TrEMBL record, chains A, B:
Record keywords, A-Z: Ligase
A Pfam family reported for this protein in Swiss-Prot or TrEMBL: AMP-binding
Ranges for region Disordered: 519-547
PANTHER family linked: LONG-CHAIN-FATTY-ACID--COA LIGASE, MEDIUM-CHAIN-FATTY-ACID--COA LIGASE
Signal peptide limits: none
MF annotations from Gene Ontology: ligase activity, forming carbon-sulfur bonds
Ranges of Basic and acidic residues composition bias in the record: 519-528
Protein name, UniProt field: Long-chain fatty acid--CoA ligase
Superkingdom field: Archaea
Annotated family: Belongs to the ATP-dependent AMP-binding enzyme family.
Length: 547, 547
C-alpha cells in the first residue's frame, strides 16, 4: 500500500534539509565544537563513506564505546543509515563484560573515545579477535601498540561521501546490552522500524513531546539505551542539540543550560540532585530550562519540589527498560487534574505515569492473573507494543523466562491506580517477600531519603528463617550527622506498619552503584546477607491472620 | 526484533483504558449525544460483534456514507480493529460516482446515515449488487423498500462484545477514493501500519501536535480522507472530541466551540470565512480556540489576519492529498523567526510550510530534473514516505502516470524557499501555460479575493492561438457591489506584470464547487473555454525576450 518503509532516512533528511542552520553543540576534552545540521550531514555522509571503505556492509555490526559528543552522534546516523547496526557499549563496565559483549555481538569495527574507553580496548585487545579496526573518536592518533587504529576526524575529512541505500524497515539498526546485574549481559536488537516508531512516539505530547523550538541537552549516556533514544526524536524535530561530553560536572551542565538556552534534558536523579547542590552555592541562570525527564529511579520528592518552586522546572518521571527502548511511560497531570490541589497533583506526578502511545500493559499476580487498577494491587508489569522487543539476541532460555506470548514480563513490580497511572513498587528481584506479603524496598528507600540527615539509602532483603526475607536498611548519613538506628526506625514508623520496618539499619559510606548509576543492591546483598537479625515481628504478629 | 505490529489496537486501548472518562460530544439531527471513551469502547466492541454476526470477516470491506457523528466514529475503530477495511464514501458525490465506488471497492456492507445518504443508496439499490446489508446509523428504521436494512443502535444494543484479534500491520484498514475531477475516481488503500504511522506523526509538534488537553472538533468531513485522519491521533492522545454532525452551520460551530471549549479544529477556508462572518454579527465566545488547521486551498490573508488579531486564533496552513493520507506539511514559524517582524513571519505562514516528519520531497521540472530551493523555481512536487501510497487500487495505468519509483508525482506545482517552506503555486492541471511561462491561477485568485468587493474568484486557463493559454477570471461580487472589469484589472496590475492579467473578467453568481468544497474549475472551463478573448500582451510583448 505504501512504497516506503519506516527507516531513519527521512529523519536525517528532515534535519539536514529543513533545518540546515540549526546548531549542534558538543563538549569534549578539547573544548566546545559548534556546528549545524548541514555540517553534521556532510560529516555523517563521509563517516559512512569511510566505514564503507573499511569494508562495512549491510548487516555488519559496528560497536561504539564513547561519551556524549558530536562524533558519537554522527555515528548514530551514519551506521544505521548505511544499513549497518549501531552497537553502543557501556565503556565503564567491568572488562570481562565489555569483552563478552563485543564478542557476543561479533562487532568487527569499534569506534572508541580516547582515554578510558580506548585504554579498555587496549587491555582487552588480545581477546577481541573479531575486531578488524579501531577508530579513535578524536583528531589525533594516541600512542598505542594496536596496529589497526585510525583517527576519526582524518577518516571523515578524507573519505568520499556515501549515498544512503533504500533499506528495509526490518533491517537491524541498533543493539544494546542490558546491564546484567544478574548473570551475563543480554543483547537487545532494534530494527529501523522500532527506532522510527519510538522516536515518533517520544516526540508526541503524550510521551515527552519534542518540537523544533526545544533545545535538548543529552545527559543520559549515549551507551545507555542510546541516550534513551532521544537523539533520534530530536533530529526528526530539527531541534538544537547539546552533547555535554565525558562526565560533565554539575557546573558544566549549569553552564551549558545557561549558555545554550537548554529547554529539555533527561537523566537519572543523582545528576539533578548534584545540579541543585551546585545551584545552591553558585550563580547560574537556568531560566530557559522547562523540563527534566527523570528515569532509572524515582527523584526524591524534595528535589522535585525544589526544582518547581525555586526554578520553575518540572521534573517528569518516566519509566522504561532496554527492552522497551527506554521511554515507555511518562508522568504528567491529566487536564482535569488542573482543578486538584497542588499536593494531589504532585502525588500523581511522583508516579511513573501514563503508558506511552503504541503500548499496552497489565499487572499480574504470581499465578499470571490480571490484577485490578486500584492503586493497591501489586503485581508484575507486563507490556507489549511495537517498541518492545520480542526476544533477546541468542538467548532462548532468557526468552522463555521473560516473555508470555507477545507480552514482555518486565520484572518490575507495580501498581496501577484508577486514573491509569503506573507506579513502580520495586524490581521483582529487590522486593522483600516477608511472611507471604511484599515489602517495597524502593518505597522504604525513598522515605528514608526524605530524612534531613540521610544522603542515600538502599534497602535489601536478607534471608530469614521464619519470614523468608526481612528488610535491612543501608544508610549513608550526611556529613556531621550522628543519626542512630532508633531515630531512623522511629522516622519510618510514622509512615509504615511495624512489619515493614527494617530489622537492622547499617550505616555505610556511600551506596555502591552499577555502571549505569543505579544502586548496586547485588553488592550490598552479597556483603550483608549473613547479617544477624534480631527476632522481629512479621506480618502475622501485627494482623494475626497469617501463618 | 519486536513481537508486535503497528496496528490501531494500542490507540484504542490507550483511550479506553487511560482516559475512560474523557468526553466525546456528537451532534445529529436528534440533538446532542455525550458520552465518554468507556462507553465509546463498549459500543465499538458490540458494533464489531454485530458486524461479525452479519458475516464480516478479516479483509472484508465495509463502506460508510455518513456525516461527522459518534456512530461514524465508532465505525472508524470497530471496522479496522476487527481486521476489516473501513471504506469511507462521500455521500454528496453524483450518483454514478457512488455507484462506481461501491462496486469498484466491492463493499458488501454499508453503514449509511439517514436522510440524503440513505436516499442515495435507495436510488442506486438495484445497481449495488454486491451489498448484502445496509445499516442505518440511527435509532430507528426508515420507511424503505430495501429488505436487508438494520438499525445501528439496535445492533449495538443487542450484539455480543467482540474480542480484537491480533492483526498484521499489513492488513488493509482504510480505503478512500480521490474526488476524481478528471476521469473515474481512483481508490487508495491504507493498511494498519500507515494509519498508525500517520496518526503518530500528526500528533507530534512537528506536524499538528495533539495532546490530551486538546479539545478537537472534527469539521473536515469524515468521508474526506477520514476527516484528515484526525480521529485516529485524537484517540491515541486521549483528547476530548467534538463531532458536529451533518452540515453544521457557522452558528453551530461557534456554539460548539464556546460550549465544549474547543482548542483545535480543521477544515477548508470557506468554513472559517463563514464563521468569521457569523462572529461579526453575533456574540459568541471562542476564546478557547487556539488553532485552525486549514487545507484544501489557501485561506485568504485577510481571514488569517482577522482571526489572529481579533480572536487570537492561529490559522495554520497544511498541505496533503488522499494519496498522502491528508496532512503532509504544516506551516508554522521556525523558532529563529520569532525575531522577524510580524509581516515577514506572516508571509512565511501563508505558505504550505514544512514537510511533516517521515516524508521526503523534491520539486522537479518537466524533464524530471530536481530544482533548487530558492523560492522562485517552479516545479512539480514529488513526495515519498511511509504515509504516502505506493499505488492506486486496481489502476495500473494511473500508477504509471503518477509514480516514479517510490516517489509520488503529486500533480501539485510548487516552489520551496531557502528555509524549506513549500508553497503550492497551482495544480498542474490548473496552471496557465502562457507564452512558455507559467501563470499561477491560485495566486491570481487569492489576490482577487483580497479585494473588498469580491466574495469569491476562480481563474481558469482558456485556449489561445498565439499564447497557448490565457487566464480568465470568474468573479463573484459581494452584494451591492457594482465593481467593473477595468477596476478589477487595475487592482491586479499593482501586484503583477501585465502578461499575468486575465484577458477577461466574467462576473458570475457563485463559483461552482466540487463535492469536497473545492472550486470546480473543470465546470468553469467547460462553460467558458470558447470565450472570445481580445488581442492581449503575452510574456514577450513585455520583456521582448520570447518567441
Amino acid at each position: 500500500m505504501t512504497a516506503t518503509d519506516l527507516t531513519l532516512r527521512p529523519f536525517y533528511w528532515r534535519a539536514t534539509n529543513l533545518f540546515p542552520e540549526k546548531e549542534i553543540v558538543s563538549r569534549d576534552s578539547d573544548g566546545t565544537t559548534r556546528y549545524d545540521y548541514r555540517e553534521f550531514g556532510e560529516r555523517t555522509e563521509t563517516l559512512a563513506g569511510a566505514l564503507s571503505a573499511l569494508g562495512v556492509e549491510l548487516g555488519d555490526r559496528v560497536g561504539t564505546l564513547g561519551w556524549n559528543t558530536h562524533r558519537h552522534y554522527e555515528a548514530y546516523f551514519a551506521i544505521p543509515l548505511m544499513g549497518a547496526q549501531l552497537h553502543t557499549i557501556n565503556p565503564v563496565l567491568p572488562d570481562n563484560h565489555v569483552e563478552f559483549i563485543v564478542n557476543d555481538a561479533g562487532d568487527d569495527i569499534l569506534l572508541v573515545d580516547p582515554g578510558e574507553p580506548f585504554e579498555t580496548v587496549e587491555r582487552l585487545w588480545d581477546r577481541l579477535a573479531g575486531v578488524r579496526e579501531v577508530i579513535v573518536m578524536d583528531d589525533e592518533l594516541p600512542e598505542t601498540d594496536i596496529e589497526c587504529v585510525s583517527v576519526y576526524d582524518e577518516l571523515v575529512a578524507n573519505a568520499d561521501s556515501f549515498e544512503w541505500p533504500t533499506l528495509s524497515e526490518d533491517q537491524p539498526a541498533g543493539m544494546c546490552y542490558t546491564s546484567g546485574t544478574t548473570g551475563k549481559p543480554k543483547g537487545v536488537e532494534y530494527n529501523q522500524k522500532m527506532i522510527y516508531s519510538h522516536a515518533m512516539m517520544v516526540a508526541t505530547p503524550s510521551a515527552i513531546g519534542i518540537g523544533e523550538s526545544d533545545v535538548v541537552m543529552h545527559v543520559v549516556p549515549m551507551y545507555h539505551v542510546n541516550s534513551w533514544e532521544l537523539p533520534f526524536s530530536t533530529t526528526m524535530a530539527g531541534a538544537k542539540q547539546v552533547y555535554p561530553g565525558p562526565s560533565p560536572s554539575a557546573e558544566t551542565l549549569a553552564r551549558l543550560i545557561e549558555e545554550e538556552g537548554v529547554t529539555l534534558t533527561a537523566g537519572v536523579p543523582t545528576v539533578w540532585i548534584n545540579l541543585l547542590d551546585y545551584l545552591d552555592n553558585n550563580n547560574a541562570d537556568i531560566s530557559s530550562l522547562e523540563r527534566i525527564v527523570v528515569g532509572g529511579s524515582a527523584a526524591p520528592r524534595g528535589v522535585m519540589r525544589r526544582f518547581k518552586e525555586e526554578y520553575d522546572v518540572v521534573i517528569e518521571h518516566a519509566w522504561g527498560m532496554t527492552e522497551t527502548m527506554s521511554i515507555g511511560s511518562v508522568s504528567r497531570s491529566k487536564s482535569h487534574m488542573q482543578d486538584w490541589d497542588r499536593d494531589e497533583r504532585f502525588e500523581k506526578r511522583t508516579k511513573q505515569g501514563l503508558l506511552s502511545p503504541g503500548m499496552e500493559m497489565k499487572i499480574v499476580d504470581e499465578g499470571g492473573n490480571e490484577l485490578p487498577w486500584d492503586g493497591e494491587s501489586v503485581g508484575e508489569l507486563y507490556v507489549r507494543g511495537p517498541t518492545v522487543i520480542g526476544g533477546y539476541y541468542n538467548r532462548p532460555q532468557a526468552n522463555e523466562a521473560s516473555f508470555d506470548g507477545d507480552w514482555l514480563q518486565t520484572g518490575d513490580i507495580a501498581t496501577v491506580d484508577e486514573d491509569g497511572y503506573l507506579e513502580l513498587v520495586d524490581r521483582s528481584k529487590d522486593i522483600i517477600k516477608s511472611g507471604g506479603e511484599w515489602i517495597s524496598s524502593i518505597e522504604l528507600e525513598n522515605k528514608l531519603m526524605e530524612h534531613d540527615e540521610i544522603l542515600e539509602a538502599a534497602v535489601i532483603a536478607v534471608p530469614h528463617d521464619r519470614w523468608r526475607e526481612r528488610p535491612v536498611a543501608c544508610v549513608e548519613r550526611k556529613q556531621q550527622s550522628t543519626l542512630q538506628e532508633d531515630a531512623v526506625l522511629e522516622f519510618l514508623e510514622k509512615a509504615y506498619p511495624k512489619w515493614w520496618l527494617p530489622d537492622k539499619v547499617i550505616f555505610i559510606e556511600g551506596v555502591p552503584k552499577t555502571a549505569t548509576g543505579k544502586f548496586d543492591k547485588k553488592q550490598l546483598r552479597d556483603e550483608y546477607e549473613n547479617t544477624d537479625l534480631p527476632q522481629t515481628p512479621g506480618k502475622d504478629d501485627e494482623t494475626g491472620d497469617n501463618d
